[in-house]
Amino acid sequence: MTTEATVITRRDGRVGRILLNRPKALNALDLEMIRALTRALKDWQDDPHVHAVVIEGAGDRAFCAGGDIVFLREGQISGNRPAVDAFFQEEYALNLLIAAYPKPYIALIDGICMGGGIGVSVHSPHRVATEHAMFAMPETAIGFFPDIGATYFLPRLPGQLGVYLGLTGLRVKGADAVYAGFATHYTPRAQLPALSAALAEQGLAALAQFAAPLPAYSLAEYRSAIDHCFSADSVPEIVRRLEADGGAWTEPALKAMRHVSPSALSWTLEALRRGADLTLPQALDAEFALTKTTMAHPDFAEGVRAMVVDKDRQPKWSPATIETVDPATISAMFR
Ligand code: QUE
Hints:
Elements: E1 7-12, E2 15-20, H1 31-45, E3 52-57, E4 62-64, H2 69-78, H3 81-99, E5 105-109, E6 112-114, H4 116-119, E7 126-129, E8 134-136, H5 150-153, H6 161-168, E9 172-173, H7 176-180, E10 185-186, H8 192-202, H9 205-209, H10 223-230, H11 235-245, H12 250-259, H13 262-275, H14 280-295, H15 298-309, H16 327-331
Bound molecules: 3,5,7,3',4'-pentahydroxyflavone (QUE).
The site of 3,5,7,3',4'-pentahydroxyflavone (QUE) has 17 residues, from α2 and α15.
């Protein structure tokens, strides 16, 4: 272990600690980090001194902002499919390892938690959010889809909330994340170091002890409208329902849906509907298959270019509008 490591693991009292330590990259997961996490969890699985695992993000901006999508884009463009496959296979295997982990795995989420960051937290039964926690699945913005098991858990959020969040990429903050189902406990940032220390001393009981009462749910008044709009059978119909609703809550949703990849909206809706009937392992297998067809679509390289590489935020999608996406082309991307 060195302080330069992008994942720092150590034993502390009854717990094994994992620190995602790439704060300048918002602790986004590269393959080396995925491997370090996997190795630590496998070591501690059989270590009688380790009763639980606690994972946190370094710095005060992010728990984990996602995966190494620049690496994935380069692998796709250069035709290095083995490297791309290795990344997804190992990332999804880690998601499954966390879901089935035999000891408590506790994620302390303070700051940004998106994509791959959700994959190393939401599959565990113990997720603490602070008032600065910010959850999102923004992959339609890069011409991809919510993966890391999101096709399993988004359809299991209350009503159509997961479809709304998976299509729009909109953010859920603080205590709202508990109501929405991303987190199980709410603890103020100021108390997080004390909670983290208490977990090493007394174990899981510390979670309830440090949980603060939840403030009101800001999405409560839109829930039935969200369910109505996002239960539609197609993306164009969802847009028609949002326009017909006309409420203030529909503005950010429509703005987001007009900015992201029209094709990605369509394959994401299909993937989420299918995921509702799958187990987590089945959903991850289906996601792995879908990485191949979606990354081969021009919108993936273009979306990562516009949002992450060049940061001009002006992607040129093909096709350019929701109305001109061909449903048969999307259907052919699924097995
Ligand atoms: C949409 C996304 C992602 C994104 C930006 C989007 C995403 C992702 C990252 C990201 C952030 C910080 C990093 C990094 C990647 O940004 O999935 O390597 O250091 O991982 O608009 O889906």
